[in-house]
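pasting for the record
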Amino acid sequence: MALFFAARQAYSSGMFDDTLLSAIRARFAHVDDCPFTGPRIFFENAGGALTLRSVVETSARFAAIPDNQGRDNPASQALVAVIDRARADVRRFFNAEGGAVLFGESGTELLFRVIRDACLGAGPGDVLGSTVEHPASRSAAARWADVSGRRHVLIAHDDATGRVTAEAYAAAVSPETAVVTILHTSPVTGMGMDLSAIVKAVRAVAPGAIVIVDGIQHACHGRIDVAAAGVDAYVVSPYKVFSRHGYGLAWASDRLTAMAHDSLVGGPAGNWELGTRDTGAYATFSDVVAYFDWLGGQVSDATDPSARIEAAGQAIHDHETALTRMMIEGTDNLRGLASIDGVHIVGGADNAAREGLVSFWSDNTPAAEIVAALNAEGIRTHTRKADHYSGNILTPLGQESCVRVSLAHYNSPDEVRRFLSVIHGMGL
C-alpha cells in the first residue's frame, strides 16, 4: 500500500493535537472512568483495549435480531450482506489478497486451529518458533508438532531487547522446516518483531513453509500488511483492537485453506466456520475498520480507504511512541522511569521496537504493591507473573513479576504525567 501521510499532527514528537485527541477519546466507552470505581486512567490496554461506542451500539442492535443467515427472507439476506461486508473490511484491514477470513471463538482458539491444520497438512519437516511467543501459539505448536511427529524447534529470544530477530530465524531455519510460528508483538516486553524480515529469512531457506502469525497484541497498534509480509495466517483477538469479547478473527491463505480442516460433510469447500456465528460480531469489526478509516482521514489527505487505514496505523504508532518515551525519559520536571534508582525496564530503556507498552520492576518494591498503589490512585495497570503466560520472559531475567503499563493511542500526555507523579510519590 502506498502511504499518503500529511503533517496534520501538532507536534514534532508525533503526538495528536488536543482537538484530535479529544475527538478520538469521545469515540470510546469508559475512556476516563470505570463503571465500578469511577474516574480512572486506563493503562491496561494489553489486557483488552477500550471498546468503541459504535461497537457497543452495534452489539445491542444485532443482539435483538431473531433471524439467522441463509434463509429466504429479507432480514436473513440483510444479515448475509453484513457478513460479506465484514469479510471485505477484514481483508482491507489486513491488506490481504485471496485466502479466507475466519471468525471463531477467540484468537487463541483460532491459533490452535490454524497451527493444527498446518502441522497435519504440511509436508515432512520441523515446526519452528521462538521463546518470545505467547503460550497460545507456543502451546499449539508444541501439541500439534508432537501429534504430527515433528520436532518443535524453539529459537531463544534476546533477553536484553525482549525480541527475536530475522537473523535468529535465519540461523535456525532449514530446508526441512515445514511450519513456522511468529509473534508479531509481545504482550510482556512490548516489542514488535520485524515480521517482513523474518518471513523473508524463512522463505530464503524454506520457501514452502507454512507461516502463521500471532498478531493479537500488535493489532491495536496498526500497520498490518499480510500481503507484503507473505504469511499464510494472521490471527487477532478483536477485544484487543477496540471491538468486544466473544469472537476471534483470522485470515488464512489459499494454500492453508486448501488443507484438510474441520468441516461439515457435503458443506461448502473452503469453509472454516462451524455452526451459526453471531452476525453482530462481524458487524462490530466493520465498526473497527470504519474507525481506522476515519482516523486516517484526520491525519492524512488520503482518499483511498486502504491508504487511510495505513495512515491511521502510522499515526497511532507515532503517538504511542511519544507517550512511552515520556514515561521512560520523563517530561517537564518529572523524571522518567529510566531515571529512578532501582527501576529496571524490560527490553531496555532505549528500544525502537517498543509498541505502546512499558514493563518494569523495582529492586525495592514488589510489582504487586506498585500495581495496588497505582490502582488506589485511579491508575489501572497490571502485574505480570513468571507463570505460564509470562515466565518465558521473566524467568530468564530472574524476576518473579513485573509491572506492565500498556497504552493505546487514546491515552494522553496528561495521563502519563499523572502516572509519573504517583510513581514518584511512592518513593520507589
